[in-house]
Write a structure and sequence with these properties.
Layout lengths: L2 E6 L7 H16 L12 E5 L1 H10 L13 H15 L4 H7 L11 H11 L11 E8 L4 E6 L10 H8 L9 E4 L11 E6 L1 H4 L3 H10 L9 E6 L10 H4 L3 H6 L6 H22 L6 E2 L2 E2 L11 E4 L15 H17 L1 H12 L2
Parallel strand pairs: 1-2, 1-7, 2-3, 7-10
Antiparallel strand pairs: 3-4, 3-6, 5-6, 8-9
Helix pairs in contact: 1-3, 1-12, 1-13, 2-6, 3-12, 5-6
């Protein structure tokens, strides 16, 4: 039996890119007579940081209609368009008091938390997800990776909104999040785990999703795991050697330089995960161009791993440029990315429609 896995990278406001791609996938399924929510077609949906927002939106049930998710791809795309400026809004007072992010997080998380609660509810747990879901974060107390998922009963007792808040607590951008571990409740006390963005170790959570699928026995039963892995566009600005050699610690994490160290961590891990899964899942691994799988009429039927991503040319690659013009450009970039890799999406839609 075939298992389908959707994986969405982190990338701040650049989450508009995979959200746009998913609207195209939804439209392709509709043309094939498939109008069910996306979660009905995927056995596991994984997300990190902004990808966790998308994964949660597609899998968290509505309180009034428990068989329906709180959002589809179009609603998530509108979330980036309408709420992005509020999430990445920095008051003049905060800028002055914080000297541009040098002495405190760049943004107040209050707006983000309100948006997450409004969308996901305050008490809905990952255990209640409509399909298997995986959200990554990092515990800064025990110094370990955290995988919040209903694929493992020991790690599913987290509130959706808190899990996403923890997964998207990017260092220097937002303060760490305190996420309640409901499974560890003892004598009425619920311990809280201080978490930061899962992008520090798994900005592309596809490899983590592969492991969770393997834990569920999918690999041992020789069931094919088919991945659709969506990037948020990759930074393409070179880091000039003459500047970097004099940066020191402050320069590598400075918001004035768009925190290049975070970008390097994120992009380095994502390129590693895609390289590994291309080798693991594709019998004859195709070449990658600009971080994406090259799909042809000859190889499309033999592939089990589809990666869509590209350098953000003509778009600001900063994680927090939520200006209306840049959000519009990101959405257009996502639509162009989908069109460029139409053959990959056609193949994925054909296989999903055959379920």
């Amino acid at each position: 039996m075939t298992k389908f896995i959707l994986s969405i990278d982190g990338g701040g406001i650049r989450g508009a890119v995979p959200a746009a791609v998913l609207t195209v996938l939804e439209d392709k399924l509709k043309t094939r007579g498939k109008t069910l929510p996306l979660y009905r077609y995927f056995d596991l949906i994984a997300g990190t940081s902004t990808g966790a927002i998308i994964a949660a939106g597609l899998t968290c049930p509505k309180p009034s209609h428990p068989d329906q998710p709180v959002a589809n791809a179009a609603k998530l795309l509108e979330l980036y368009r309408s709420k992005g400026p509020a999430i990445f809004d920095q008051s003049l007072f905060r800028k002055l008091a914080n000297l541009g992010g040098l002495f405190d997080e760049h943004y107040d998380a209050t707006a983000l938390e309100k948006i997450l609660i409004d969308m996901l509810g305050k008490s809905t747990e990952i255990a209640q997800a409509l399909t298997k879901v995986l959200i990554t974060a990092y515990d800064i107390h025990t110094r370990r990776a955290v995988f919040m998922t209903n694929a493992d009963p020991e790690h599913e007792r987290f509130y959706f909104w808190q899990a996403v808040r923890g997964s998207s607590a990017a260092p220097t951008y937002f303060e760490p999040a305190l996420v309640e571990d409901l499974a560890a409740q003892s004598h009425g006390a619920v311990p809280s785990i201080p978490m930061v963005d899962g992008g520090v170790f798994a900005n592309d959570p596809a490899m983590a999703a592969y492991v969770e699928g393997s834990k569920l026995g999918w690999r041992d039963k020789n069931e094919e795991m088919i991945f659709l892995s969506l990037g948020t566009g990759s930074a393409n600005r070179k880091i000039p050697y003459q500047q970097a050699k004099n940066w020191g610690a402050g320069g590598w994490i400075s918001p004035a330089n768009d925190t290049p160290l975070i970008s390097v961590f994120m992009q380095g891990q994502a390129s590693t995960a895609s390289y590994q899964l291309n080798k693991l899942l594709n019998r004859t691994p195709p070449k990658f161009t600009d971080g994406a799988t090259i799909v042809t009429m000859a190889n499309r039927g033999s592939l089990n791993y589809f990666r869509l991503d590209a350098p953000l040319i003509g778009v600001n690659d900063a994680l927090d440029d939520a200006s209306p013009g840049n959000i519009k450009a990101l959405i257009e970039f996502g639509m162009t990315l989908a069109a460029k890799h139409d053959l990959a999406l056609e193949e994925v839609a054909d296989r999903l429609a055959a379920i």
